[in-house]
């Protein structure tokens, strides 16, 4: 049973990977634009990630997913690594 286009944003996405249908919903919600810089997204270079990581209390739901261009995804990952490194310093 698939999700409908107007599916609630709180629907839990099981597992570590999102489906093609969830990717489609996220891309349509963002008008196929990067959540970070608003650049147009292409099929081969779009990264999907959680806005709020699970480790920081974020939910694994459609509403918490975002689509990013490679540049914004790389910067987001760098910021998360820096933040976690600061948290783990003695």
UniProtKB/TrEMBL annotation:
> Could you tell me one molecular function GO term of this UniProt entry?
zinc ion binding
Tree of life domain: Archaea
Q: Record's InterPro entries?
A: HNH, HNH_nuc
Question: Could you tell me which residue ranges the HNH nuclease domain spans?
Answer: 21-74
Which SMART domains did the record assign?
Answer: HNHc
Task: Show the Pfam families listed in the entry.
Answer: HNH
- Protein's recorded name: HNH nuclease domain-containing protein
Traced from the root, the source organism's taxonomic lineage reads:
Archaea, Methanobacteriati, Methanobacteriota, Stenosarchaea group, Methanomicrobia
